[in-house]
Design a protein that fits this description.
7 helices; alpha/beta
Length: 150
Amino acid sequence: MERTYTPRASDIKRTWHLIDATGVPLGRVATQVATLLRGKHKPMYAPHMDVGDYVVVINAAQVGITGKGKPLDKMYYHHSGYPGGLRSMNLQKTLVKFPERVLERAVRGMLPKNSLGRAVFRKLHVYPGPQHPHHAQFHVSTASTEESKP
């Protein structure tokens, strides 16, 4: 009888991915990010475990929006919990005020709605501009490779 492979925590190797969202449609970026966060691009993918990588998305304010009337017609809602506390904001205003929330909300909708989805979502970092504080994770040491060359 053959057994199903389940990765151990020691087998999981997490890498960092940098994605530039400039001009790319929102849904296309969100599906790419959700795939990397879940780990579906790895051969060791297991749906019940967090085997995904860290993802940094830059230039979220310049994400592409397709559709003729979508910036004004697409609405985002949240509720304060109090009677009459429903607040709404269209996509155009949200991109101006909170550009990172648009992409975060699109990705969150593609993840599982349980504790695994919340753990996976914590590995996502979205920034409205090109600056981000994660340069050390992407830094590749060139000094050690040049020393080993003859």
